[in-house]
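Lab notebook: predicted structure, single chain.

Context: the supervisor wants predicted structures on file for every construct in the current expression panel, including those that have not yet been purified. This is the next one on the list. No modifications to the sequence; it matches the entry in the shared construct table.
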Amino acid sequence: MINVSDHGRKRIKQRCGLPKKAAQRFAEKAFKNGITYSECAGGLKRYLSFLWEYNHTANNIRVYANKVFIFADETIVTVLNLPKRYYETVKKIKEARYVIKNDS
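Prediction complete. Output recorded below exactly as produced.
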């Protein structure tokens, strides 16, 4: 189960437009279904590395719904907007994930 910090709940409300009560469900979806660092490549991977360097408490970063979720263990620390230049990369990763899932 994912823990949501007060700051994480506030950022989900602010940046995702969801009520505070939905923060727990959304954080769990992001943790379970989000794109991991190991699935990323190129500029997106470098951007996530930068975020990790900036926030040393983070040990798990996920990209979900064009947002970057930063977790410390199983606690969501904050949510950031993904820069638009990475949207296409995320879309390609999701499509590749969908193809692999349906081929097996």
